[in-house]
Fold:
Amino acid sequence: EVQLVESGGGLVQPGGSLRLSCAASGFTFGNYAMTWVRQAPGKGLEWVSNINSGGVYTSYADSVKGRFTISRDNAKNTLFLQMNSLKPEDTAVYYCALASGTRGQGTQVTVSS
Structure:
């Protein structure tokens, strides 16, 4: 069974940083591209970032480019999202996901003073 479990969310002040993790199991993690998406209160899912299976190629939404960094550790079956210079508009539930649409339960990120 495919499982994706996000962690690392929390409450942070504007300008702060958080590092999200996604522990994957039930599939050969290193064979798949991975994605972070988010959902702000009252809004739809928003794509945040992609990374290819080998971790070499990455892409970002314009709203997070230069502030967020996606990475992965295939030996540990774990996906990461380093978030710096956080803004209130980054407040959302963050999910890691496969291209199939499978995603975890999410982790809440709240940026507020």
About this structure: The two ends are 40 Å apart (CA to CA).
